[in-house]
Amino acid sequence: MKDWKSLAHTKWDCKFHVVFLPIYRHKVFFAKNRIRAEKMLRELRRHKGIELLEGNAQSDHIHIYVSISTSPKLMSLKAFSYEMV
């Protein structure tokens, strides 16, 4: 329970495994785009208060494991990443 976050009347420990896939799984995450994706993830952490626990980028997809306080933040993560791509 030491990892749990809390407010006045609630406690939570929300961790999500998120996979970003380009359309038709084209191999787009090479040097230039991989750097851009890493920059996008750093911006997300700073603006949305998301804790990145683990990440892995392949040539055709990206896996991230994040700790987020509430599920609406997960929706904003997907929306923000869609706009950036």
Outline the structure in words.
This is Putative transposase. One of its GO terms (molecular function) is DNA binding. It comes from Candidatus Scalindua brodae. Residues 11-71 form the Transposase IS200-like domain. One of its GO terms (biological process) is DNA transposition. The chain has 2 helices and 5 strands. Helix 1 (31-48) runs antiparallel to helix 2. The chain starts with a strand and ends with a helix. The protein has a single domain, classed as Transposase IS200-like (Alpha-Beta Plaits), CATH 3.30.70. The chain has 85 residues and is of the alpha+beta class. The protein is elongated. It has helices at residues 31-48, 71-84, and strands at residues 5-6, 11-12, 15-20, 51-57, 62-67. The model has no long low-confidence stretch (mean pLDDT 75). The strands form 2 sheets. Strands 3-5-4 form a 3-stranded antiparallel beta sheet, covered by helices on one side.
Short description:
The chain is of the alpha+beta class and 85 residues long. It is 38% helix and 27% strand. It has one domain (24-84): Transposase IS200-like (Alpha-Beta Plaits).
Principal-axis shape = elongated
Within CATH, the superfamily carries the name Transposase IS200-like
Strand content: 25-35%
Q: What structural class do you assign from the helix and strand content?
A: alpha+beta
Describe the main β-sheet briefly: 3 strands, antiparallel
Could you tell me how far the N terminus lies from the C terminus, measured between alpha carbons in angstroms?
37 Å
Domain Transposase IS200-like: 11-71
Pfam family, one: Y1_Tnp
GO molecular function: DNA binding; transposase activity
Protein name: Putative transposase
